[in-house]
Amino acid sequence: MFFLGNITVSLEKKDEDVLRSIAEIRYKNKKGSLAKVIAESLEFLSRESSRQKAMARQFKWLDSGFEMGKITAAKREEIYDRR
Question: Is pTM beyond 0.85 here?
Answer without folding.
Answer: no
